[in-house]
Design brief:
Layout: E1 27-28, H1 51-56, H2 60-76, E2 81-82, H3 106-122, E3 126-132, E4 145-147, H4 150-157, H5 159-164, E5 171-174, E6 178-179, E7 182-183, H6 188-197, E8 203-206, H7 234-247, H8 258-272, E9 274-278, E10 292-296, H9 321-328, E11 333-337, E12 353-355, E13 359-361, E14 365-367, E15 373-382, E16 387-395, E17 397-403, E18 406-413, H10 423-426, E19 430-437, E20 442-452, E21 454-460, H11 467-477, E22 480-486, H12 507-517, E23 521-526, E24 541-544, H13 552-560, E25 574-575, E26 590-592, E27 607-609, E28 620-626, E29 629-634, E30 640-649, E31 661-670, E32 675-679, E33 688-691, E34 694-697, E35 702-709, E36 712-719
Parallel strand pairs: 1-2, 2-3, 3-5, 4-6, 4-26, 5-8, 10-11, 10-22, 22-23, 23-24
Antiparallel strand pairs: 6-7, 9-24, 12-13, 12-15, 14-21, 15-20, 16-19, 16-21, 17-18, 17-20, 25-27, 28-29, 29-32, 30-31, 30-35, 33-34, 35-36
The structure holds beta-D-glucopyranose (BGC).
């Protein structure tokens, strides 16, 4: 049997061998949507809320449905295998791919991940559970050696994979990093844990470029066409690929109309929004009472709907908070002021461009895979405002920029010697040239890029010195202010970790000044991961919207105006400060998970908002609990949705344990005044701990507590 079958044909497809039942199989990223084989605006993809946002819904039925929608997107784009879900943990909020993972809790991750796998595969598309294992940060990601003790590995980082195997995922992806000395594509954990102990019979593929040896433990080395993989048992591995081909050829996915997709994504976004604070019940607001609304902040008119890196897709459209509020408030004046600038790198130019004189494109960003090319892009940039505009180029290659017939830049841009190869896409080197123009003036732009596989034409218009004052003045006149702040692709993306949890730029100052000017302010945080909130006491309402997908702006309007409840609960502790958070900086190539089991709420980090926290618009009274059966009532004045959470603890345990840990959760809905009884399903590992090389259950009673977050528990029962 030909060992070359074990390596991809190219970046996104497997080799075919019809004589043995192996048709061409196409794989594609990733959790936020289905990219397909081309990665640009010509092949748009429905952009679903980011994984953290999906997990924040705590709603397995919702996640299953979103995954079904993704299965349809896969079929529409000729994709058989989706490279998702990402089930690494939120070990620390510094992790660059935090937005792409579900939670700091292994059970919540496992339950949401299993729902994602079921939704995809019931529609005939393969899921790829990634990245096995301990791939929880980005710094030196290809080589770092994560040192994780056995108990921590079993109880935290491996547990989501173990739980998701119950949903029978057809593929698993082995990570780039090492764990306890061995690179994951060669790791004995693939054979001893995944295959033998857990009985996994699906395909194990490498992460892109992760295969290091001829006898690596993976069935499939990606991407192709070159890899060192040439193991002795080619037949066994090819048989797994053939089985995958059969599985993904069995049926077609159910079709979704554009309207159905929009409705699902709008509801899914709101379901994941976490209302962290609602002082004086500012929210919800009645639309008819609003005459003038101020939308303020860098992300107000330009929503960030997804995180950076391989998860990036090109949505067919996006709805910004400004657009969402305008559509929901046709009789009010909804005005916008950015306030401050959050970016420092040059943004992609928003242009219609002519590539190589023949191809009309609606973007300033171009990506191919494969051989480097030389291309020329022509466009015009018309200045909206007078002043100094910066026009430039980003990428790896040789760039010649001509403005109005004059060559202003001629330079070879390269990556530093220690750069992550992904930087070429996620944070490419860039150069800009300032030019001063009048408002309305048009500049002819020609950019020649030699030896590139990806590049950008950049344009950074001038930001007015009066930005902050303009925003404050606008806020002062409004009946309601919605400030939308957040991270940028510069600070939150695959390929690097965050170095600070502060909001970039002067956004904290903007919030302080605006809430001083008008206390009727809702702060919307558009970030994939926790940020610091030094202004929290001044902000009456804080809504965490993550990266909410293409319908985020409509969902923000729905929640602010009370058309729907904010359904989300924090899937991860929101820390009060940066004190005591696990580091992502390897020392001599080694990253020791020295916090052990003390991750997130299991540890000593002081929360600003605890794990599981999130407010709705109704009131709930927890009435009684028997084992894992909970009776509660909606005592509010409107119908509501509640996430009932159950945590276990073991007083006087002989084993060192966290104070309490999540063992079950369920979403309930009830009309005003209605009572509900829910049997909360418990994790199969709810009461187990790892010791002496095996799962153990400590004898005696465990305490179960039910409530609204790890810090707001209402009832208890015992379990033995
Ligand atoms: C990422 C994977 C992704 C792959 C293909 C890698 O750099 O780590 O998550 O699926 O690229 O884009």
């Amino acid at each position: 049997m030909d060992a070359r079958l074990l390596t991809g044909a190219d970046f996104w497809s497997l080799r075919e061998a019809p004589e043995i039942g192996l048709r061409r199989i196409v794989v594609s990223d990733g959790p936020a949507g289905v990219r397909g084989e081309t990665w640009d605006e010509r092949s748009p993809s429905a952009n679903v809320p980011a994984p953290t946002a999906l997990a924040a819904s705590w709603d397995v039925a919702r996640v299953e449905r979103v995954a079904r929608l993704l299965a349809f997107e896969c079929r529409r784009k000729g994709v058989d295998v989706l490279l998702a879900p990402t089930v690494n943990l939120h070990r620390t909020p510094y992790g660059g791919r935090h937005f792409e993972c579900f939670s700091e809790d292994p059970y919540l991750t496992g339950a949401i991940g299993a729902a994602f796998v079921r939704g995809l595969q019931e529609e005939g598309v393969a899921a790829t559970v990634k990245h096995f294992v301990a791939n929880d940060s980005e710094t030196e990601r290809f080589t770092l050696d994560a040192i994780v003790d056995e108990r921590t590995l079993r109880e935290l980082y491996a547990l989501p994979f173990e739980l998701i195997l119950a949903a029978d995922p057809w593929a698993v992806m082995a990570a780039y990093n090492r764990v306890n000395g061995t690179t994951m594509t060669d790791s004995p954990l693939i054979q001893s844990l995944l295959r033998e102990e857990w009985g996994y019979d699906g395909v194990v593929m490498s992460d892109w470029g992760a295969t290091r040896s001829a006898d690596a433990a993976v069935d499939l080395a990606m991407p192709g066409p070159d890899s060192p993989l040439d193991p002795p048992d080619v037949e066994v591995r090819v048989a797994r690929l053939v089985a995958l081909a059969e599985r993904v050829s069995a049926k077609d996915a159910t079709a979704w109309s554009d309207a159905e997709i929009a409705a699902e994504l709008r509801a899914a976004a709101a379901d994941g929004f976490v209302l962290a604070r609602n002082h004086g019940s500012l929210l919800p607001l009645t639309g008819s009472s609003l005459r003038k609304v101020a939308v303020i902040g860098p992300n107000g008119a330009d929503a960030r709907t997804l995180g950076g890196g391989s998860a990036t897709v090109y949505p067919p459209y996006t709805v910004s908070p400004l657009e969402g509020l305008r559509a929901a408030l046709p009789h009010a004046e909804v005005a916008f002021a950015p306030g401050v600038k959050a970016h420092t790198r040059l943004p992609v130019a928003k242009v219609t461009a002519m590539l190589d004189g023949t191809e009309q494109r609606e973007t300033g960003e171009f990506i191919w895979f494969g051989d480097p090319r030389t291309v020329e892009v022509r466009t015009t940039i018309t200045a909206e405002a007078a002043g100094e505009h910066v026009i430039g180029a980003s990428g790896v290659g040789r760039f010649t920029l001509t403005l109005d017939g004059t060559v202003v830049l001629e330079e070879e841009l390269t990556l530093g010697p220690d750069a992550d190869p992904g930087e070429q896409l996620f944070a490419p080197p860039q150069r800009g040239v300032p030019i001063t123009v009048e408002a309305g003036q048009t500049v002819d732009v020609v950019l020649r890029a030699e030896g590139v596989t990806a590049f950008q034409l950049n344009h950074d218009p001038p930001f007015p010195d009066t930005g902050l004052e303009d925003a404050v003045a606008l806020a002062r006149e409004a009946d309601l202010v919605v400030i939308v702040v957040g991270t940028t692709p510069e600070v939150e993306s695959e390929g690097f970790d965050r170095s600070s949890l502060a909001l970039p730029g002067a956004q904290d100052e903007l919030i302080r000044r605006v809430t001083d000017a008008n206390p009727k302010t809702v702060v919307v945080v558009n970030a994939g991961a926790p940020v610091l909130m030094p202004w929290i006491k001044q902000a009456p309402a804080v809504l965490l919207t993550w990266f909410g997908g293409q319908e985020a702006g409509n969902a923000i309007a729905d929640v602010i105006l009370g058309a729907v409840e904010p359904g989300g609960r924090l899937p991860t502790t929101w820390p009060a400060s940066e004190d005591g958070l696990p580091s992502v900086q390897p020392v001599d190539g080694v990253l020791t998970y020295s916090e052990g089991l003390k991750v997130g709420y299991r540890g000593d980090v002081v929360p600003l908002f605890p794990f599981g926290h999130g407010l709705g618009y109704s009131e709930w009274r927890y009435l009684a609990m028997d084992g894992a059966r909970v009776r509660l009532a909606n005592t509010g004045t409107r119908g509501g949705r509640e996430v009932v959470q159950i945590y276990a603890s073991k007083p006087d345990s002989a084993v060192e344990r966290p104070a309490r840990w999540l063992v079950g959760f369920a979403v309930v809905e009830a009309a005003a005044g209605e009572e509900v009884i829910v049997d909360v399903p418990l994790s199969p590992r709810a009461f187990d701990h790892w010791a002496d090389g095996a799962w153990q259950r400590e004898p005696g009673e465990f305490v179960l507590e039910a409530g609204r977050s790890v810090a707001d528990l209402k009832l208890s029962s015992s379990w033995s």
